[in-house]
Amino acid sequence: MHPAFSVIFLTTLIGVGQGLFLALYTGQVYAVFHVLSAQGDSHFYATGSAISLLFLTGGLVASFFHLGHPERAWRSAAKWRTSWLSREVLVLPAFMGCVLLYGAAHWLGWNAPLFTLGDALPVNLILLAGALGTLLCFALFLSTGMIYA
Question: N or C: lower Cβ tally within 10 Å for the chain?
Answer without folding.
Answer: N
